[in-house]
DNA sequence: GAGCACTGC
């Protein structure tokens, strides 16, 4: 996409009037829109969507589908009934940037006809007709409006990524679609928008389809059109899922990327990557598995450069990974100084989440660190595994954004053929408690027979149902409990954190627990660069609580709050942000994470207040607070064995305190933790010491059989 | 001396 800065405020030499400049600019935009591959099939797409309930669009990168299709549909009158076009994205940034772009193309103010809505940031109004949003947000909307009645069309973009939200959303949309065509028919077929396909669909459906959705009595909602957009070549799975829905292919526009393979297998891909870096001649993007590996390669590169002649030292390496503070991430986006070439050492973040300009070469070792979840043990693991074919293609595509590029895959071509076509959908790799709670709140009682695109294992479903039951969210017959289950479903948190809040109200420490769940809901709070390990560790120890990580989080949150209150009473928002950045830097706290935690905190506080829970503080009585933690996280308790190891009480597994925990190296009889992660060993993350007697007292239903 | 890929409500 050519960069077209908004020229509205730029008076070109004063020679052209403002309105002329604007006209010229709009003309330029129109030309650009017409040149997109999708423009050639506008009429056909509009017709297909008019005639089909569901349409699958396979659009390659650069086809313009995300920005153009909603505009086509708006123009074709899909909003005439006052209903909006919703477009979902897996990522926040995408929703925001695309909405901004489309508002500009339409010549309207963002938040008017075109807007976006993501968590913490709603840029929509009553007049918004094209609404971009995250898929998770639309799922939340469904809790309040089960028919999604304000939309005439929903476009699910990037469906090939198969995030857990996309998968659940597709299942839900299928249901909503059927239900809505039924209500449309119930209204005496008076809706002229009814088409043959609507009545065909109505005949196919069972009588009880609507019964699981809350009935919207007397309302006449027109049928819902659904468009599933995917970049994967395989449209079949989507088409089959939607009863043989029609699929349309739209060409993309990318520069060619030559792909090279190694002759034989590489024993050491880090070594091979470094060799390849020195053979390429432009800006390079190297995909590595994690922070540790990136830092190792950085070190090796520096070492190697020192042994080269001066004229060959013009290489600048920059790391980028998610937990890197944003100021340092920015360095990857800056052009290298004249005469230098840039090597970006990146994790998966550079696959889809960020696009680094100027990349001509991609080095792909063919591995990725991926999360896996074992429902039996409740342990998450991070393993280095081969990428999928789709992932390899995505990576190589990063070299062809601005011109022809090259991709070096550090494995032989026959290995590529052996790779899985696509990555295992997230829904098969994670804990389902949250998803199940939401489905239950949407009226889906029988999870086992819910029409998932890809069904999670029976074990995973059963385990999560069990967990929700133990938390009191479900009754004995696995129905959503009242009020606890309903309250928990309303909170945008892991169910166990929602439960902790409800309990904290009874323990009079809701203020502390609000901070806790906010801090637990965000990415790592402490930042520990390898080269400043001692300094960062000292900073952490200054603020740490001997009781454990939970109280340490409260300390961090409150200390920063106090600092802000003292240093900028009454000053501007920018000043506050600046002060916060300063405080974070001095204390080796990740500013992005802490800001995020403050956002979560205020959002959740709002929800909790709305539920009528009283926010009280336990003051200095942290014993009370730890008892409350015990009551909430009783399933995650571990006790120390005579041999010094810890054993998780629920599963009996040997576990250890995570090296990042403030309790690392301490010896307490009993602890609670938030999650189990398996890397080189089974680690408990976020740990607090408790009295073992509290377990029997506060979670007798779980520990009844124990002495 | 150990060790957290990436999203999202």
TrEMBL record:
GO cellular component, one term: nucleolus
InterPro entries: DEAD-box_helicase_OB_fold, DEAD/DEAH_box_helicase_dom, DNA/RNA_helicase_DEAH_CS, HA2_WH, Helicase-assoc_dom, Helicase_ATP-bd, Helicase_C-like, P-loop_NTPase
Record's protein name: RNA helicase
Annotated organism of origin: Carnegiea gigantea
GO molecular function, one term: RNA helicase activity
Entry keyword RNA-binding: no
Boundaries of every Helicase ATP-binding domain copy: 46-251
Entry-linked Gene3D superfamilies: 1.20.120.1080, P-loop containing nucleotide triphosphate hydrolases
Stretches for region Disordered: 1-20
Catalytic activity: ATP + H2O = ADP + phosphate + H(+)
Enzyme class: hydrolase
Pfam families registered for this protein in UniProt: DEAD, HA2_C, Helicase_C, OB_NTP_bind, WHD_HA2
The EC number(s) this enzyme carries: 3.6.4.13
Domain Helicase C-terminal: 269-443
Family note: Belongs to the DEAD box helicase family. DEAH subfamily.
Domain of life: Eukaryota
Annotated CDD domains: DEXHc_DHX33, SF2_C_RHA
One example of a Gene Ontology biological process annotation: positive regulation of transcription by RNA polymerase I
UniProt keyword annotations, A-Z: ATP-binding, Helicase, Hydrolase, Nucleotide-binding
């Amino acid at each position: 996409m050519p960069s077209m800065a908004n020229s509205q405020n730029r008076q070109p030499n004063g020679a052209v009037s403002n309105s002329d400049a604007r006209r010229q600019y709009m003309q330029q935009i129109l030309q650009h829109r017409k040149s997109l591959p999708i423009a050639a099939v506008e009429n056909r797409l509009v017709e297909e969507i008019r005639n089909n309930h569901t349409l699958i669009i396979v659009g390659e990168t650069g086809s313009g589908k995300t920005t153009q299709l909603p505009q086509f549909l708006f123009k074709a009158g899909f909003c005439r009934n006052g209903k909006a076009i919703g477009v979902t994205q897996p990522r926040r940034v995408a929703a925001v940037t695309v909405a901004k772009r489309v508002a500009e193309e339409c010549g309207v103010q963002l938040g008017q006809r075109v807007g976006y809505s993501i968590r913490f940031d709603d840029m929509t109004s009553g007049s918004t007709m094209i609404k971009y949003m995250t898929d998770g947000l639309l799922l939340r909307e469904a809790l309040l409006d089960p028919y999604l009645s304000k939309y005439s069309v929903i476009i699910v973009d990037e469906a090939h990524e198969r995030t857990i939200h996309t998968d659940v959303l597709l299942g839900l949309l299928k249901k909503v679609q059927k239900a809505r065509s039924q209500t449309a028919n119930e209204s005496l077929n008076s809706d002229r928008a009814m088409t043959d396909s609507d009545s065909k669909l109505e005949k196919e459906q069972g009588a009880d389809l609507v019964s699981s959705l809350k009935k919207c009595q007397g309302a006449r909602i027109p049928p819902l059109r659904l468009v599933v957009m995917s970049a994967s070549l395989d449209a079949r799975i989507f088409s089959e899922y939607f009863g043989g829905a029609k699929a349309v292919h739209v060409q993309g526009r990318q520069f060619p990327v030559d792909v090279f393979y190694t002759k034989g297998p590489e024993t050491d891909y880090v070594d091979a990557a470094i060799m390849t870096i020195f053979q390429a001649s432009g800006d390079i993007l190297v995909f590595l598995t994690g922070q540790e590996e990136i830092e190792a390669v950085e070190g090796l590169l520096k070492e190697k450069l020192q042994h080269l002649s001066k004229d060959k030292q013009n290489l600048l390496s920059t790391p980028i990974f998610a937990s890197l503070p944003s100021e340092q991430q920015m360095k990857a986006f800056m052009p290298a100084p004249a005469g230098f070439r840039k090597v970006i050492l990146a994790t998966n973040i550079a696959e889809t989440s960020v696009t680094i300009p100027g990349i001509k070469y991609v080095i792909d070792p063919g591995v990725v660190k991926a999360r896996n979840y074992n429902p039996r043990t409740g342990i998450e693991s991070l393993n280095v595994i081969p990428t999928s074919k789709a992932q390899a293609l995505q990576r190589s595509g990063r070299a062809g954004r601005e011109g022809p590029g090259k991709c070096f895959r550090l494995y032989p071509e026959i290995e590529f053929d052996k790779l899985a076509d696509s990555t295992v959908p997230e829904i098969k790799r994670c804990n389902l408690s949250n998803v199940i709670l939401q489905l239950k709140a949407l009226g889906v009682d029988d999870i086992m027979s819910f029409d998932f695109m890809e069904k999670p294992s029976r074990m995973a479903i059963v385990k999560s149902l069990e967990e929700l039951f133990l938390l009191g969210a479900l009754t004995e017959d696995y129905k959503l409990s009242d009020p606890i289950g309903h309250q928990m479903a309303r909170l945008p948190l892991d169910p166990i954190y929602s439960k902790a809040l409800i309990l904290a109200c009874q323990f009079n420490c809701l203020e502390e627990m609000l901070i806790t769940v906010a801090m637990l809901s965000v990415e790592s709070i402490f930042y520990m660069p390898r080269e400043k390990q001692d300094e960062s560790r000292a900073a952490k120890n200054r603020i740490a609580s001997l009781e454990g990580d939970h109280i340490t989080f409260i300390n961090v949150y409150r200390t920063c709050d106090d600092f802000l209150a003292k240093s900028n009473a009454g000053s501007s928002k920018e000043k506050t942000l600046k002060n916060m950045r300063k405080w974070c830097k001095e204390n080796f706290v990740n500013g992005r994470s802490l800001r995020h935690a403050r956002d979560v905190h205020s959002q959740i506080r709002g929800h909790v207040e709305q539920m009528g829970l009283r926010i009280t503080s336990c003051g200095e009585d942290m014993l009370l607070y730890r008892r409350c933690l015990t009551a909430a996280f009783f399933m995650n308790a571990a006790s120390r064995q005579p041999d010094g190891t810890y054993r998780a009480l629920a599963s009996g597994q040997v576990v250890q305190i995570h090296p990042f925990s403030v309790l690392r190296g301490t010896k307490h009889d009993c602890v609670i933790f938030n999650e189990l992660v398996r890397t080189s060993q089974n680690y408990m993350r976020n740990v607090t010491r408790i009295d073992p007697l509290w377990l029997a007292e506060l979670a007798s239903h779980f520990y009844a059989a124990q002495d």
